[in-house]
Amino acid sequence: MSSLQPFIVFEGIDGAGTTTQAKRLVDLFCRAGADALFTCEPTDLPTGALIRTILAGDDSVQPETLALLFAADRREHLYHPDRGVLATIRAGSTVVCDRYLFSSLAYQGVTTDPTLVELLNSQFPLPRHLVFIDTSLEESDRRMSSRPRRDRLEEESLQRRVASRYRQVIDRYQDRIAVHRIDGNQDEATVFADIVAALADDFPVLSR
């Protein structure tokens, strides 16, 4: 798999703060005068909407079906002619994505055959930068305690298995892309400062 520049992906277990930090990074890019776009998976495309409905509802699907749906949504996310990641990068913007194929390898990798999940995601390009917010289960659970309801992937028993799997997945990409491990147990501002410091060499605009 090739890597895309400029494409930055945020990963971490639920409650790690990936959405918050990714949006803060896009805001900093924009305030510095650089074009940047926040995006996420599942997407707001029809494929992503279906996934969100399944995760939030009472009806379940087979784990393999969910893995296939995530891969289908990722393909639409990348290759949509107007709103896709590739089209946005070609237009000159930096893309900052909350979750990508690493989430599938971690989450679906513990609920179904990991070989299937790897095969489904094997042709997708890698990001240039992966920001992994490494957060303890205790801290992530504390942050999610205020949520009125958790979806299927946020259940504590699954999160425990995913946390271990995530670290294994991230380790495999250390020599292929720029992986930045950030201590997610710190306060929000400190986590963000660490992220900016990690990315500043490739994106000098963040240091202005």
Characteristic terms for this protein:
single chain; 208 residues; Rossmann fold; five-stranded parallel β-sheet; globular
Overview of this structure, please?
- By secondary structure, the chain is an alpha/beta fold.
- It has a five-stranded parallel sheet with strand order 2-3-1-4-5, with helices on both faces.
- The protein has helices at residues 18-31, 46-56, 63-79, 85-90, 101-111, 114-121, 137-144, 156-172, 188-199; strands at residues 3-11, 36-40, 94-98, 126-134, 178-183.
- The chain contains nine helices and five strands, in the order βαβαααβααβααβα.
- The chain has one domain: P-loop containing nucleotide triphosphate hydrolases (Rossmann fold), CATH 3.40.50.300.
Brief summary of the model shown:
This protein has 208 residues and is α/β, with parallel strands linked by helices. 50% of the residues lie in helices and 16% in strands.
How do the strands and helices of this protein lay out in sequence?
Layout lengths: L2 E9 L6 H14 L4 E5 L5 H11 L6 H17 L5 H6 L3 E5 L2 H11 L2 H8 L4 E9 L2 H8 L11 H17 L5 E6 L4 H12 L9
Parallel strand pairs: 1-3, 1-4, 2-3, 4-5
Helix pairs in contact: 2-3, 3-5, 3-6, 5-6, 5-8
